[in-house]
Design the sequence.
């Protein structure tokens, strides 16, 4: 029966292919959206790893996470240097990275930090940052900058070039810090995290820009000032602990710090919380792709129903050689199975083709990291669900053909 | 009812659902095995309905239609479909073939739903395709034409393929519903001759239905539907 259905479909090649392509494209979209959803969630969770606590001024955990990890949104408050020193003295601290945000370059966030960032920051599965060109800036370097992969690619930045940062996060700022240009020392490898979109400069360099700290004056002229704490304020501090379970206790302790209102969050938990708030968007995307699949399948239904009229002769011939109405019924269901399976197969093929050949392009241009890994069980379930939906829909034309077969008998009505 | 009876009608009455009077009322008709019968009737006289009753597509009441000893009313839909597949070769006026299959494949299709035809073919030498090609050659289709898709064949060639399909696997009865009305006179006579010869060889019963009385001289027996049908509704 499958062979007969195939032969019959081949006879209607044009419509059959169009139907298959419609199903393939909708499958591609549904599975693509599913893959983007799952892998984005993974990437999302990959943005930071190994950091046990993020400390910032008193604010909501999502806001602190967004500003410290994703460099989104401006913090109105800051942490004082005193508090930073207090944090360093806490027991069980393995490392600490100070972050000062608020400046930008061509709309990309500028993160002022210390070389500790490059030594201790980890993403994905404890992966350290790596450079494709140049080198890190060191403690003595006050005008060096390290540029994220995407910024470098988009803005065509090269090692050794000069960079002028602007105050504020906007793309165009009225207060460019023209007087203090930074020199690009290194360019980071792509990570599929917000790191790709950031520019890293030394904390002391930011101090220079903002006039909070002037290296030459302090270092050369006035030795009395040498032991005084610098005055720049921080947006957040990333902390690694020697003993992970300590995090909860330290979090409480920091939240109760009396010197200044502080917030400490555990990045894993905060990420999960944030992802949950993005759930709605994700669901909407999924709903849209389901609708596209429905459109594809309705296209198949239309073409099958339309074909019934022109195929009455075919059905009468089949009836004449002894095919029962059930065979006619089965024939139409088989056709739907063929159309849907080939369509879904083609869609999966297309998906992998795109993932295989387009993932580098996607990563460089959108920062989305999608891998051509094998179909997950949920993706497989979706694919099977499309075929099952196609079979269910084909019951309508199959039933009509069945009724026609009984009523028309051997007379060919045109 | 004798062993050699192929089709027997007894007090057949048939009325379409919703019709106000019966279309067919045939007190008696018997066709022996091996007989070649012409059934003549004007269009709309109930010919096609009678044929679909004999072919078991539509159902008559018990004891009214016997085909090869089976009371069709006693058989289920599936059994009637099976009986038709096995023992009845049906030839339409035209468009007999699945256009997307080759001539040979169309012929072989006859065995698709017919285990009895398959069993009879097993007794012969050669594969189904060889047997089908042989049959097509017998019916006068050139060898190179038997591989071509059906839609590329002329109407005359298509009717030969249809006849070959009806005859494939030696069913007991061939029902031909106006098989020559799409053919010109030369092709018509030639087709009838070829069909007769093939039926002769296998002792196949032929029920040939037409509106064209001029064909009657070819047949041993000619029946006027109007004469045997006493229904008022038979127009």
Sequence:
């Amino acid at each position: 029966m499958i062979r007969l259905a195939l032969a019959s479909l081949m006879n209607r090649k044009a419509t059959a292919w169009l139907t298959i392509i419609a199903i393939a494209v909708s499958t591609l979209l549904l599975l693509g959206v599913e893959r983007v959803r799952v892998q984005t969630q993974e990437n999302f969770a990959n943005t930071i790893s190994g950091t046990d606590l993020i400390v910032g001024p008193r604010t909501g955990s999502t806001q602190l996470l967004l500003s410290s990890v994703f460099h989104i949104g401006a913090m109105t408050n800051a942490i004082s240097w005193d508090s930073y020193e207090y944090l360093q003295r806490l027991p069980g601290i393995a490392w600490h990275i100070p972050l000062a945000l608020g400046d930008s370059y061509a709309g990309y966030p500028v993160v002022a930090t210390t070389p500790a960032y490059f030594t201790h920051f980890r993403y994905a599965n404890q992966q350290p940052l790596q450079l494709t060109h140049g080198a890190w800036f060191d403690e003595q370097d006050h005008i060096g900058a390290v540029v994220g992969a995407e910024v470098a690619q988009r803005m065509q930045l090269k090692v050794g070039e000069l960079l002028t940062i602007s105050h504020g996060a906007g793309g165009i700022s009225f207060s460019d810090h023209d007087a203090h240009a930074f020199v690009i020392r290194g360019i980071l490898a792509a990570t599929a995290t917000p790191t790709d979109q950031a520019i890293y400069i030394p904390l002391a360099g930011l101090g220079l820009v903002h006039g909070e700290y002037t290296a030459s004056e302090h270092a050369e002229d006035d030795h009395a000032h040498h032991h005084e704490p610098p005055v720049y304020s921080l947006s957040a501090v990333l902390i690694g602990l020697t003993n992970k379970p300590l995090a909860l206790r330290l979090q409480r302790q920091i939240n109760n710090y009396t010197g200044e209102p502080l917030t400490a969050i555990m990045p894993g938990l905060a990420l999960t919380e944030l992802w949950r708030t993005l759930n709605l968007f994700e669901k909407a995307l999924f709903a849209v792709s389901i609708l596209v699949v429905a459109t594809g399948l309705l296209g198949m239904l239309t073409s099958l129903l339309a074909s019934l009229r022109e195929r009455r002769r075919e059905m009468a011939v089949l009836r004449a050689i002894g095919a029962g109405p059930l065979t006619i019924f089965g024939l139409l269901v088989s056709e739907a199975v063929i159309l849907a399976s080939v369509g879904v197969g083609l869609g999966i093929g297309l998906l992998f083709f795109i993932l295989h050949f387009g993932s580098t392009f996607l990563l460089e241009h959108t920062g989305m990291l999608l891998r051509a890994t094998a179909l997950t069980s949920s993706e497989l379930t979706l694919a099977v669900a499309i075929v099952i939906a196609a079979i269910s829909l084909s019951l309508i034309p199959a039933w009509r053909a069945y009724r026609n077969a009984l009523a028309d008998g051997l007379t060919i009505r045109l | 009812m004798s062993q050699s009876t192929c089709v027997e009608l007894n007090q057949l009455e048939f009325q379409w659902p919703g019709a106000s009077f019966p279309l067919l009322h045939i007190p008696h008709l018997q066709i022996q095995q091996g007989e070649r019968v012409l059934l003549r009737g004007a269009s709309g006289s109930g010919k096609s309905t009678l044929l679909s009753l004999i072919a078991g597509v539509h159902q008559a009441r018990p004891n009214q239609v016997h085909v090869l000893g089976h009371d069709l009313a006693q058989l289920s839909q599936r059994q009637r479909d099976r009986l038709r597949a096995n023992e009845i070769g049906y030839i339409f006026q035209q468009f007999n073939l699945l256009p997307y299959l080759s001539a040979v494949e169309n012929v072989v299709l006859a065995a698709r739903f017919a285990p009895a035809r398959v069993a009879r073919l097993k007794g012969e030498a050669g594969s189904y395709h060889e047997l089908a090609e042989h049959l097509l050659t017998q019916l006068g289709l050139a060898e190179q034409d038997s591989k071509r898709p059906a839609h590329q064949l002329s109407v005359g060639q298509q009717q030969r393929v249809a006849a070959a399909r009806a005859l494939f696997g030696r069913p007991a009865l061939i029902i031909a519903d106006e098989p020559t009305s799409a053919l010109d006179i030369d092709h018509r006579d030639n087709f009838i001759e070829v069909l007769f010869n093939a039926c002769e060889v296998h002792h196949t019963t032929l029920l040939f239905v037409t509106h064209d009385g001029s064909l009657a001289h070819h047949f041993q027996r000619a029946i006027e539907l109007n004469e045997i049908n006493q229904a008022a509704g038979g127009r």
In short: Residues 53-265 of chain A form one domain.
